[in-house]
Amino acid sequence: MKGLQGKKSFSDVRNKNTMRQRLAATEMIVPGNIQLEPWSPGDAATHITYECAGSPFGEILVAATSKGVCYLGFTGNEPAAALRDLKRRFPFNPVSEGRSFFQTAAIRQMHATHHLIPVRLHLKGTPFQLQIWKQLLRIPFGGLTTYARLGGSTRAARAAGHAVGCNPVGFLLPCHRVICTDGSFNRYFWGTELKEKLLTWEAETAQDPGFTAPRSGVVLNKN
């Protein structure tokens, strides 16, 4: 199976034609390392622990319940703002600073992109949002999809885009790999600049001849 090796132009994420080629080259995968636990009514009062940690893409705030990671956000060097976002999403849950093995696994995966580390997510969302978030896990490292593809039709693209925008777990649920059908992108909860950085880094990494991560599923059929 051919990858992106030798196709350095694929890292030009501001070139719409390049991004459309990446879309055509992407084969969806079956995720193997991340498990999803849906939120239940009884989880409304469950305790949430959070901590800030470094990552290759800047500081992150990671939070978890006793069932899994429920939040991972980029702080933009403003941890207080990220904490407010966490509490906004979980207004009824007691929150305190601390670490669990779920958070540790998530942080390790952020730093170990060449390896798959088991991570369990505990996701609060509507049935439609959960459906879309599950689809995000099928986008391979270095690959892309569109809002229309996620939603199953052009008419459902807006609803899919809203669900993507509500994603509470950045990077691990790779909503940054979703772009518009024309190859453009300008929507990312943690900032368009960060989305561009992530897309560029993934394309460059996937093109490295030494990159063999099992998440890489981009195939280029053209010579």
TrEMBL record:
Catalytic activity: a 6-O-methyl-2'-deoxyguanosine in DNA + L-cysteinyl-[protein] = S-methyl-L-cysteinyl-[protein] + a 2'-deoxyguanosine in DNA; a 4-O-methyl-thymidine in DNA + L-cysteinyl-[protein] = a thymidine in DNA + S-methyl-L-cysteinyl-[protein]
InterPro entries from the UniProt entry: MethylDNA_cys_MeTrfase_AS (IPR001497), MethylDNA_cys_MeTrfase_DNA-bd (IPR014048), MethylDNA_cys_MeTrfase_DNAb (IPR036217), MGMT_N_sf (IPR036631), WH-like_DNA-bd_sf (IPR036388)
Limits of the Methylated-DNA-[protein]-cysteine S-methyltransferase DNA binding domain: 127-203
Gene Ontology MF terms in the entry: methylated-DNA-[protein]-cysteine S-methyltransferase activity
GO biological process terms, semicolon-separated: DNA repair; methylation
Signal peptide: none
Keywords of this entry: DNA damage, DNA repair, Methyltransferase, Transferase
Name of this protein: O-6-methylguanine DNA methyltransferase
Organism whose genome encodes this protein: Niabella drilacis (strain DSM 25811 / CCM 8410 / CCUG 62505 / LMG 26954 / E90)
